[in-house]
Amino acid sequence: MHALLAKMDKKPTYPVGRVNGRTAPTSSTFGDSQSEDESAKGGVQYEQEFVQKELESYVNKPISNTQENLCNMSEVSSVVPEETFVSPSLYSRYNFNITTDIKRELPIDSFKSQILSRIEFNQVVVIEGPTGCGKTTQVPQMVMDSLRQKNKYCNIVVTQPRKIATINVTKRVCEERGWTIGTVCGYQIGLEKLTSRDEMITFMTTGVLLQKLISAKSLKQFTHIIIDEVHERNQDLDFLLLLVRKYLFTNSPNVKVILMSATINASEFAYYFRKRIANQAIPAPIIKVGKSSPYSSTIFYLDQICAMSFSGPVHCDISKPEISKDLWKIFLVLVRAFDKLPSDVDDEESVNSGSILVFLPGINEIEEANNLLLKDATNSEKPPPKLKWDIIPLHSSLPNDEQALAFKKVRPGYRKVILSTNIAESSITVPDTCFVIDFCLTKVMTVDSMTKYMSLKLEWASHVNCEQRAGRVGRTCDGRVYRLVPKSFYIDEMEKVNAPEILRAPLEHVVLHTKRLDLNDTPAQILALAMTPPDIKHIESTIWKLKEIGALLKTCRGQFVNSDGDITYLGQVMATLPIDVRLSKMIVLGNLYSCLEETLIIAAGASIQNIFSVPFQKRLDAYKKIMLWSDGSSSDLIALLNLYFVWQARKRDNAFANQKEELAWCQRNLVSLKGLREWQLLVNEIRLRLNYLDLKETVGPGKVYLTETEKPTVLKIVMAGAFYPNYFIKPSNYNQTAEREAVKLVGGRDPFCTVFFTGLNPQQPGQIYLRQIKQLIYEKGEKETDVQIGFDGSMKIYVEFKYSSTEPTLVNLDGFNRLTYTTGKIPPKIYELIKRRQLNDVFELKLLQLQKAWEFAEANGATCHTLLPVEGLATCVERFSHTADYDPLPPLNIPYIRIHISNHCDAGHFWAQKADEKTNELLSQIEEALNKQVLKQVDEQIKVGKIYAAKFVEDGLFYRCKVTAIAGQINQVLFIDYGNTQEVNPDSLYYLPQRSQCFVVPLAFECVLYGVKPAYKHHPLGIWNEKINTQFRRITDGILLYGEVYSVVNNVVELELYRSAIKENSINKYLIDQGFADNCSPSFLSKQDHERRVKIQTSSNPVQEASRLSVDKIISYTDFADPVVEGRECTHVKLKGPYSPLEIRLFGCAAQVEGKHIDVEVTSVNSVLLDSEPQNEHSRLFVAGYVGQNAEGTRLRVRQTTLMPNVPGLPALLAAIFCPTMEPKLTKDNSLVAALLCGLGFNETTSKPFYPYHDIIIRLDTELHIDELEMINKLRYLMNNGIKLMQNVQHVRSTQNELLATQIKIKDHLFKLLNMPRNPICRENVVPQNTTWGRHEGAVLLTPNMETEEQDIWPLLGFVKLVKLDAFQREVCRNLEDIENLVYNVKPFTNTVCILCQEETLFVEDLRLHIISCHHKRKVEKFKEELKIAYNDNDGDE
């Protein structure tokens, strides 16, 4: 007996660091300890001395039972709080009889006396019983009836892991007793509760009870605590068990605890609640409840399956979880073999059609299985299956209606094949399942020990998983289970139980819970008491992460410590809200920045899975929808906000007559109604919790209101603050190389409007497949726009969309028309095509044999073995006759033009006509020709690009027009002589009369202003403000204007516009000076044309120079004859692509992501990232709410992403505002800040960074000076002050008006910072000396004037004294550095000039001789003396 007790006292240690495979068992007793050195290495054997003392404090506590202490109801008040006291008349006020016609006999009923006896004489009892035995509903009633019979006080709490289960179980108990919910029995989920003072049984989610116990610091308010489904082992449950054990054995010994489990590991819970008596560990008693079933299940393993199918053995490797090709083959054989087996479903119509439930690890494997089954079912070499397969994917990301297909009755002649993840393990039951195929794999969320990022890792499933899966059969019929692993592998290699969530998931909330207990113990000490303690490194990393986001201070009780920190007000909010800590931070920042309601909605939406309901085959439609919801913001989170506002607005307007209409609206917009309702519930719950903290929107006449222009900017900045340091950079292009390459990739076409495919045989006449290509790029019924397709004799196919609109697009998004914006000047169709490539859409051409292809091409006007069309070939692009000496577009040798604006698009974009007599004459002739005779109505198929006549609605006259897009019976036309657009029906188009004037070139040409773009401060989407458009029309309408031509590209004139011939102040400059516009660089094609124009205009013979510099015109097609390509003679070619030369690659700012490829989640609005401003010299910041990585750690996947505003210097500005601390890193001459090193700082003794994995480097592309840093410090000070005021408002030490005053100042300082003028710097020439903490290379450090308070989350930042050099001195410093690099072969040698000596060297040997010459040395010494003077002068300046 003593030996047995000694053995039981050995605590089983859970294997850590290896989820699968066998680990040698280790054990420890109460006296086990571990050295500090060993603890530093990680593991779970830490704080053993503390654990020993804690467990010893549990010894010799009095064991008593509630019934003995509470012999009558009058003694209740000494145990429970006043508000929970119940009068003795309670039992007489309610009916406690069981409704027999509702209550059925359950297996647990026969164990009633045993259960009650064990509960009476033990503090803790463990009940193990399978699903359906009745333990959840019956045990609380048994206990209540027992106390009622003895007239004892009763207050039972029962936990459930899920909300829906909590409500359903409450309903069931009340139905059995005939009670109204919320009287004797009620529930609480989150802050939603249905309870009363008379309540005896309360069902609640695990998290609710956990929050109650953290606040109460004891268990005394309850008589019994029943924790159900303890085998699920999520973080809340493990921490709840820790608290229950601690309080039970210290300050609440009279409370009874019942643990209920459905799996084989009940002994682990019994041992955890062991009681040490007489130096012996006595585990809690276990009651095992059995359950009988009339049906049986037979389990087969892979070795048995291989023997039956006559295939060779398939081996599995515990270290390499995967589905091999051989396993896929066996899977297909099994599915076919079920046709030969009888089915035992209790339904005559279901004979031989039992469903197959296949367990796969993830969505990718489901897709693979789906494709293999479809291919196998249509394989002509195999007989068709006896029963057709109704293949149904089942995954949490799929919409509810698709998931519901698994539960519908199978169609006659079909068998359901359900491809599921572990979603069907326990929460879903398919009643007609006869067969289970289990690949014995699962995906688990783990935290990487190095990067601290989460990843979904493919693992072998545990026995618990597999037994749950096997339990899906044998319920309504006999079942068969096929485990696709060998039996020996299953028994000897695979783990028995799952790794608890506390070992593999983030610990932020758990650590915050430990801080809310107000103990003197560290988080590591408290968590060492958990049933399976997390790795010490994981805890330490979490503490650093919480310090980084502001939840914990760097100090604990005034002392700086690595392993602990005092909880801040921000941390208290994070611990209170049931969402991710970063989303909680976003809400608090939202309150500081006066957008609390918006951030609350976003945070709730980001916490709900599957708001966007994406059917299996509608992922492209889903992408289009989220693009519309984002409204050009390039933000997934703003897309969520727009969706919620529209949905709520329609509900307020009573747009939904009933639930059916609301559901139809959701289906049209590919959103889940269930998800929307969960979202609204969570919004309300968060709002209630914030109200409890007195954290609410400020009200009153002085409330801060953000305009429609300001709000998107502020929201993005708040997101950047919440998700720091998940920063990624879209780097700027230092020169024109990138855009030049982009133009080259698309054969000289406009890279903004062109994509290309590869894979076409270069010898094929590509133009004959034009209509096929159009069918590939346009979906059936989709609006066809003006698209041109080109070939260049290579394997490429170029597709160019003629798109120049920056105006909002009219779309039907929510049942009525809305204006939505697209990103930049890239057509939306480009984004859609790139998305189709990402979704692995197949672009397949059917080609004729080469000889027949050329025979057809030549018969239709193409020249043999050339891709260029011959003159006169009808390509649907109308060919105009050129009147002698007339062309509206300015030729290369003409620098100035006189124009009238014929149509205003916006302040930077318009259509113009030449202001000359010839143009006026042609306009009159065309108008007369079209309106003085009867025109013939078009009786052919309308084609994009064709020229017709149509009436302009405003004056009723006919004008020439070109069809630019076709959508069903609606045609969009452009009036080519004026630039107006209009939609017309096909019967409103007419042929042009056969008069020469009607076939002259278009008289209007498109113009854009050179060097300007809409000012960001007036519209964050880069759209011209309507007030500015009106002002532009006012100063340009109806007058003669003068244009200085910069370039002509694709028939678009880029110019500087003047109101007079004197050309003193251009309209371009006026827009910039007034703050209406920002400067911008022209595109590469524009610069190229401009350089050609300058050469011609400055040459001695402009005409000859123009001829010499002329370029061949790129030929593209809009239409061509279409051959019939059918039969065996045609070949199928899968094209690769489409590709855009503007696709962006992101680079991580944090040290641990260096060199890793960044993938944006496929459902994100930013999953297709294209550079709409490749010529921009500034970087763009990309922020992710979540960062995960693949199992190998080579790729990162980001989601909930936002592209930050295109403001110069914004990446560095945001990093400096929100980082914990920062060090500026200077150039070699100490004259410029080259980079910012941001993070938690470093240990001044060891010089090692505190949290190196999250240190980020931001390279600057604008100058940073002391005045800007002072503004940043002022903003950080105001943020700290705002946090203090929120806390004081909660404790009634401050008023909302004080907080309001701070919010006003925060907004004011933020926009001053954003609008500060910044000088650009070339990142290529500005390199930091180092990127190491604490190294300043002799620079003088500047400290803030104000002191940082200990509780400040954002301490004030220091700076360094910059050396003020003039332009010449900077140029010399760069020149000397370049010379040094050339001499030592750091850079390839080119001819160079020494600026100091004014000497040019042609060879590296000459340069080396030069730098050692006395003359050069004297010059350098003199220059250094000048620099010293500059340094000394600088000391007195700052």
Automatic annotation (TrEMBL):
<keyword id="KW-0547">Nucleotide-binding</keyword>
<dbReference type="GO" id="GO:0007283">
    <property type="term" value="P:spermatogenesis"/>
</dbReference>
<keyword id="KW-0963">Cytoplasm</keyword>
<dbReference type="GO" id="GO:0005524">
    <property type="term" value="F:ATP binding"/>
</dbReference>
<dbReference type="GO" id="GO:0031047">
    <property type="term" value="P:regulatory ncRNA-mediated gene silencing"/>
</dbReference>
<dbReference type="GO" id="GO:0030154">
    <property type="term" value="P:cell differentiation"/>
</dbReference>
<dbReference type="Pfam" id="PF00567">
    <property type="entry name" value="TUDOR"/>
</dbReference>
<feature type="domain" description="Tudor">
    <location>
        <begin position="941"/>
        <end position="999"/>
    </location>
</feature>
<keyword id="KW-0744">Spermatogenesis</keyword>
<feature type="compositionally biased region" description="Polar residues">
    <location>
        <begin position="23"/>
        <end position="33"/>
    </location>
</feature>
<dbReference type="Pfam" id="PF21010">
    <property type="entry name" value="HA2_C"/>
</dbReference>
<dbReference type="InterPro" id="IPR027417">
    <property type="entry name" value="P-loop_NTPase"/>
</dbReference>
<dbReference type="InterPro" id="IPR002999">
    <property type="entry name" value="Tudor"/>
</dbReference>
<protein>
    <recommendedName>
        <fullName>Probable ATP-dependent RNA helicase spindle-E</fullName>
        <ecNumber>3.6.4.13</ecNumber>
    </recommendedName>
</protein>
<dbReference type="InterPro" id="IPR001650">
    <property type="entry name" value="Helicase_C-like"/>
</dbReference>
<feature type="domain" description="Helicase C-terminal">
    <location>
        <begin position="333"/>
        <end position="518"/>
    </location>
</feature>
<dbReference type="GO" id="GO:0016787">
    <property type="term" value="F:hydrolase activity"/>
</dbReference>
<keyword id="KW-0378">Hydrolase</keyword>
<keyword id="KW-0943">RNA-mediated gene silencing</keyword>
<keyword id="KW-0221">Differentiation</keyword>
<dbReference type="GO" id="GO:0005737">
    <property type="term" value="C:cytoplasm"/>
</dbReference>
<dbReference type="GO" id="GO:0051321">
    <property type="term" value="P:meiotic cell cycle"/>
</dbReference>
<dbReference type="Pfam" id="PF00271">
    <property type="entry name" value="Helicase_C"/>
</dbReference>
<dbReference type="GO" id="GO:0003724">
    <property type="term" value="F:RNA helicase activity"/>
</dbReference>
<comment type="similarity">
    <text>Belongs to the DEAD box helicase family. DEAH subfamily.</text>
</comment>
<feature type="region of interest" description="Disordered">
    <location>
        <begin position="7"/>
        <end position="43"/>
    </location>
</feature>
<dbReference type="Pfam" id="PF00270">
    <property type="entry name" value="DEAD"/>
</dbReference>
<keyword id="KW-0469">Meiosis</keyword>
<dbReference type="InterPro" id="IPR014001">
    <property type="entry name" value="Helicase_ATP-bd"/>
</dbReference>
<feature type="domain" description="Helicase ATP-binding">
    <location>
        <begin position="116"/>
        <end position="282"/>
    </location>
</feature>
<dbReference type="InterPro" id="IPR011545">
    <property type="entry name" value="DEAD/DEAH_box_helicase_dom"/>
</dbReference>
<keyword id="KW-0067">ATP-binding</keyword>
<keyword id="KW-0217">Developmental protein</keyword>
<dbReference type="InterPro" id="IPR035437">
    <property type="entry name" value="SNase_OB-fold_sf"/>
</dbReference>
<dbReference type="InterPro" id="IPR007502">
    <property type="entry name" value="Helicase-assoc_dom"/>
</dbReference>
<keyword id="KW-0347">Helicase</keyword>
